[in-house]
Amino acid sequence: MTNNAAIVELSQTANKFRSSIVLQADNKYIDVKSILGLFTTLVGGHAYELHVHGPDADEAKKELGDVFAKHSLNVTIVD
């Protein structure tokens, strides 16, 4: 199970950006800016895809990638 600190940090980081930031888990798409969405989706052992589109996408990908790595979450950042 993912810890609450990871969820809060991901959401806070995502909310710093104007870009659309969506996490894909299986067939579900979750807005990373939504803490509730993350709580119901981020469970250990899954592989995730992160989709970022918008004016500050490059910075958002880098910062969120760092947060995912810090919390040992398996994510692929999709270009």
TrEMBL record:
TM region(s), chain numbering: none
Pfam families named in the record: PTS-HPr
Ranges for domain HPr: 9-69
SUPFAM superfamilies recorded: HPr-like (SSF55594)
Record-given protein name: HPr family phosphocarrier protein
Gene source species: Cohnella rhizosphaerae
